Amino acid sequence: MSDNGNYHNRGIETASREEIASLQSRRLKKIVKHVYESNPIYRRLFDGHGVRPEDIQSVEDVRKLPLMNKELLRESYPLGLCCVARDEVREMHMSSGSTGTPVIMPYTDADLDQWAECMARCYRMAGSKTGDAVQITPLFGLFNGGFGMYHGARAAELFIIPAGPGNTARQIQLARDLKTRIFTGVVSYGIRLMEVLQETGQDLPDLEAGIFGAEVFSDSMKSKISQGLGAEVFDIYGMTETGGVGTLGMDCPAHDGLHVWEDHYIVEILDPLTHEPLEDGEAGELVVTALTREALPVIRFRTADLTCIISRDRCDCGRTHLRIAPITGRLDDMLILKGVNFFPKQIEQTLMKIPGAGSNYQIIIEESDGIKEVRVNVEAEDHVTSSVVARALKDSLGFRPKAFVYPLGDLPRQDGKAKRVFYR
Ligand code: DLL
What we know:
Layout: H1 10-13, H2 17-38, H3 40-48, H4 70-75, E1 91-94, E2 104-107, H5 109-125, E3 133-136, H6 144-155, E4 159-161, H7 168-178, E5 182-186, H8 187-200, E6 209-213, H9 219-229, E7 232-239, E8 244-251, E9 258-259, E10 265-270, E11 284-290, E12 301-307, E13 309-311, E14 323-324, E15 329-330, E16 335-337, E17 340-342, H10 344-351, E18 357-368, E19 371-380, H11 386-397, E20 402-406, E21 421-423
Helix pairs in contact: 2-3, 5-6, 10-11
């Protein structure tokens, strides 16, 4: 299916809006029937909402279906929502469950192909060509990042270096020796790689693209990593519940929003409180219906991720699949302080614009006697003072948090997704 140029599947990636809508309608009907007939939890959910598979005839009918959230997936741990026989399951991944019971995502053979297809489109969109070396740094394990990037790289016919995380000095050596063209990882790993390159005065002469995601990614952090690596950086999106990394898409070389693979997913943006649909351009909660997965297709899944639809027009890259804004944060990440609502991403965006500021930071919410204060710790070069940081934050947030500057390399780092917000 590989294509010349920057498409993995040119026909579908550039299909007209009418073709996409008609495909979505057919697939929605089929998937609703599948989950209803194969899983008692789905059947109860639909019956309780007074909707039957026959009521779903076109893509607009998606709004007749009930919403589901992470809680339902957790309650049905381990495989309660699985819609295929157990002997059809070939692989599983699991979300870390930092807030409670984990969620298991089972995959059939066809699901693994669907995942690989979505990921391969992302690789091609980032400019990779058959035989290019890709260094995959997310964990290979229950986390979906490593294996998803692996399955996709097989489909995109890349030369896979399954490095996993850590040992950055060795990763750099490998990348130089094997002429790595694409680095993939969680955003924090992109930062780590950039820092070690800077510390050791090395570069990666063959690197063309960095594909990073799994964490909130401000534009200023993105351009900083791009400069540090000397490569174009892409923001890749996906989650365990939709089938993993890359399933929901990535930005293209036009870098004007993330293309969502609409032949595989219907996305809606809803008001998080009223669940009413929002207009394009209005920010709200992303709700996703998986159209082509077999083992556990989520239906109107409330992701808790905040974004908006930027455009449904054909993009400069030629693709027609709609574009969403980079994720602002999760609903539960919103901080309210001194009457101001804000997301950690705004703090990141501001810090990364301060000349001399490093890439590692922490946001600490201190609460005493019901009064909340925010303290921002950031690594920076010697000439950056805490008052410079506090002033920059005041200008963007509207109130002045406490700011503390640490020498570069002093704040703790962890493998995998970085923890940025701490409560005391
Ligand atoms: O983080 C999948 C992934 C792996 C994406 C590697 C990109 C790279 P989960 O662990 O299930 O899966 O976490 C999913 O992470 O609901 C978002 O809140 C957040 N997230 C994922 N990608 C992005 C992104 C993987 N590009 C949760 N920007 C999602 C912002 C992201 N947040």
